[in-house]
Design a protein that fits this description.
The protein has 153 residues and is mainly alpha-helical. Helix content is 76%, strand content 0%. The protein is extended and about 55 Å long.
């Protein structure tokens, strides 16, 4: 995602500066939201922030919006896993169009199996909030802030 943004800039030489400012702004927004949530709810905060909201129409709308967001972003998050697995199993690049043959249905079964596996793992973990917090802190920090500058430079 970073390279197409740099190519689309009017002056690509300012990319590093813009990237640094963007990351600083994002860190400030995330830290502000976290501190505000903790200061409002103190020690009785739940693993899921939506459980701290009052039970009214607005909180229901927020919960539904988060579910819809998860429904549409889950395939994007799973795409690297899916493409890597398909390249290993079927030995071809992802750009190839596959007609509705046995291979087409096997690929879809593989994708469905990956989704079912993640649902199964999430349902078997007793305290999923703690695991999700650790994975999110390590994974999002690493893939969002550490790896892009290392890979790009």
């Amino acid at each position: 995602m970073a390279i197409p943004i740099q190519d689309a800039m009017a002056d690509p030489t300012h990319y590093d500066r813009v990237l640094n400012i963007s990351f600083i702004c994002l860190a400030f927004i995330y830290a502000s939201f976290g501190l505000a949530g903790y200061s409002i709810y103190a020690a009785c905060i739940h693993d899921e922030v939506t459980l701290n909201l009052a039970h009214n129409l607005l909180s229901l709308i927020v919960q539904v919006a988060l579910c819809v967001q998860l429904l549409f972003t889950y395939p994007v998050q799973m795409w690297p896993v899916i493409t890597t697995g398909e390249r290993l199993i079927w030995k071809y690049e992802q750009t190839r169009c596959v007609p509705r043959t046995l291979e087409f249905w096997l690929r879809n079964a593989y994708r469905l199996g990956l989704v079912a596996l993640t649902v199964l793992l999430a349902s078997l973990v007793p305290d999923f909030g703690a695991v999700a917090g650790i994975v999110g802190a390590v994974g999002n920090g690493g893939t969002g802030f550490v790896l892009p500058p290392i890979i790009y430079n």
